[in-house]
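To: structure subgroup
Subject: Chain for Friday's discussion

All,

I'm putting the inputs and outputs inline so they're searchable in the archive.
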Amino acid sequence: MRNLVPTTDQSHCETCGRKLSTGGVDGLCELCLLESGLRGYDEEDGGPVLRDRWRTIGDYELIAEIARGGMGVVYRARQASLDREVALKMILVGHWAGAARIDRFRLEARASARLDHPNIVPTFDL
């Protein structure tokens, strides 16, 4: 588990690469620090795991994080109603996202929904 001692020698978040405004805490920016607080840790390997209360989002049960970028986080998830595995992309800052960020996220989803290629997963829901 991270010791949450402020660092002064690092200028970018070790998780997302975002520039740190005040040196961060243990090398993390505010957003990654918040997200790490929503996670638990696997006792055996010390790695992050989702806490039970954050595993279900609507019809989706989050299984594992696949990737993250500047706009969002992609999870391997199970859609309960159709009993299938899906990739679920969630906006990075969640409830704190402003209107402009949400509009950009929707625009990205609509653009990806128009794509049809064997190497791109289809968009089913927004």
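Points worth raising on Friday:
Strands lie at 39-41, 48-50, 56-57, 60-68, 72-79, 84-91.
Residues 99-113 form the longest helix (15 residues).

D.
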